[in-house]
Amino acid sequence: MLKIQCEVSATVPDRYRTTSETLSRAKRLRRDMTEAEKKLWYRIRLGQLDGHQFRKQVPVDPYILDFACLRKRLALEIDGSQHAEISKAEDERNRFLRQEGYSVVRYWNSEVMQNIDGVLLDLLGKLNSLPDRF
């Protein structure tokens, strides 16, 4: 039997590592998605949106993105009423994600639930306007 040994390089910057706490939280959020997140996920998973691949509950330590298209570096957030006003923390989060190379797109839960086709058309336009990052 062949044994493969794998080591984490000490040269990997901390900002590219994800803490076990963040990973655990992401797993829990994947399991406990909101109705709006489930509805959107059903329509974007498996490359259904013009071939664009999405992942759900993606850790970008210390944050967790609702959805991400890694090829386009697009963070897709679905916001409930608790985000009615952009708080200082939310602004800081957006700034951090932009520094990490992500474009951030937000939709309200109500938009997803009542106008999923409009959300998908808008999202597709935004995706197609971004260059591939790899």
TrEMBL record:
Residues 23-127 form the DUF559 domain. InterPro entries: DUF559, Endonuclease_DUF559_bact, Restrct_endonuc-II-like. It comes from the Bacteria. It holds the Pfam family DUF559. CDD domains: Endonuclease_DUF559 (cd01038). PANTHER family: BLL0828 PROTEIN (PTHR38590:SF1). This is DUF559 domain-containing protein. The lineage of its organism: Bacteria, Pseudomonadati, Pseudomonadota, Alphaproteobacteria, Rhodospirillales.
